[in-house]
């Protein structure tokens, strides 16, 4: 007598089909549910198309190597008080920055020409710049400029032949790294502060050996980018904590003008810290961005390498491109 068919075989098959469907649905939903990444989506897409000519940010191996060098030299952890830190200063005449400035003003340095006619200095520089007082003009350490470069350059898979525009480059805390990386004449900046421009042009460029890079740095506070040329199309435009200090209406004027300067498809605009100019008008913001031809991609968080700090960057591109 034949055995009756095993009805229980149908149940595992249905369960298997349901499980497979659920797994597929979860796989499709994961990208939309995932939070903003510290590695920009634009970089993930661009990195496969065009590789960076050389490494920008340190790798885990680099960091481990540095730690091994510190350990090999038996260097202690940094002191946590100013007094303990300053006690480590050694030398014939260890000086603070303010003491260095006092020496320069009083004694004109160590060796100098008494006769002004014998002064061979090609680019006389104020003492305040020589002791780098302008490095303390920011709300965070000067080293933060390198952090910005190490985030933005890979974010667009930046090539030395690309064009970069910074809105408000200040004393070139960030800019020096882009200028060094890019081909001559490929970095531009609009800056309104006269003291910052003096520090950038009279000290940072010559002291960093970057005069041959010929960056285009212009003074202005009206978001007028026409002076940078009508044919220029930028691969990267960024503003680091600049739009916080500009009236919203002028920010929107600037964004509309910058959209025309942005390269289609690849070009990106990055704005750091926040976009209050957008949040303040709430649901009107997406419509206004669309009217000026700009699309919002998302935000990304980047950590500092050397101090406890992170920045949030908001990414835009030409709408529909």
- The secondary structure category is alpha/beta
Q: What is the CATH architecture term of one domain?
A: 3-Layer(aba) Sandwich
CATH superfamily of one domain: Vaccinia Virus protein VP39
User: What is the level 1 CATH name of one domain?
Assistant: Alpha Beta
| Quantity of strands, as a count | 7
Rough shape? globular
The averaged pLDDT comes out at 82
Query: Would you tell me which CATH topology of one domain applies?
Result: Rossmann fold
Distance between the termini: 71 Å
Tally the helices: 12
Order of strands across the main sheet:
3-2-1-4-5-7-6
Give an overview in words.
- It is a single chain.
- Helices cover 38% and strands 13% of the residues.
- With 321 residues, the chain is an alpha/beta fold.
- It has a domain of 182 residues: Rossmann fold (3-Layer(aba) Sandwich).
- The protein has a seven-stranded mixed β-sheet, sandwiched between helices.
- It is globular, with a radius of gyration of 27 Å.
- InterPro entries: SAM-dependent_MTases_sf (IPR029063).
- This is S-adenosylmethionine-dependent methyltransferase.
Q: Short summary of the structure?
A:
The chain has helices at 10-33, 41-47, 60-72, 82-86, 97-107, 127-130, 144-155, 175-181, 194-207, 248-261, 276-279, 284-291; strands at residues 164-167, 187-191, 216-219, 236-239, 268-272, 294-303, 310-318. The chain has 321 residues and is of the alpha/beta class. It has a domain at 137-318: Rossmann fold (3-Layer(aba) Sandwich), CATH 3.40.50.
